[in-house]
Amino acid sequence: MKGISIDERAIDLAHYIIDSKDTVRGAAKKFGISKSTVHTEVTQKNGK
C-alpha cells in the first residue's frame, strides 16, 4: 500500500471492511498493517 496517501488508504480500508463485512483484524491482515493502524485510520479525521 506504499505510494498512496493516508486518506486514500483510509478510504480503501473502510470500503474493504464494509464490502467484505470483515473485522479490523481481518482488514489488517489483508492490507499487511497492524490492527491499531486500521482502527486509527478509519476512525480519525485525516489531515486535521
- What's the N-to-C terminus distance? 22 Å
Largest sheet: none
Number of domains: 1
Shape: globular
- The parts where pLDDT drops under 50 for at least 5 residues are none
The percentage of residues in β strands lies in: under 5%
Supply Rg.
10 Å
What is the averaged pLDDT score? 88
Structural class: mainly alpha
Q: List how many beta strands DSSP finds.
A: 0
Structural account:
By secondary structure, the chain is mainly α. The protein has one domain (6-42). It has helices at 6-20, 24-31, 35-43. Helix 2 (24-31) packs across helix 3. The longest helix is centred in the first third of the chain and has 15 residues, at 6-20.
How are the SSEs placed, and which strands pair?
Elements: H1 6-20, H2 24-31, H3 35-43
Helix pairs in contact: 2-3
For the structure shown, list the relevant keywords.
48 residues; mainly alpha; 67% helix
In short:
The chain has helices at residues 6-20, 24-31, 35-43. It is mostly helical.
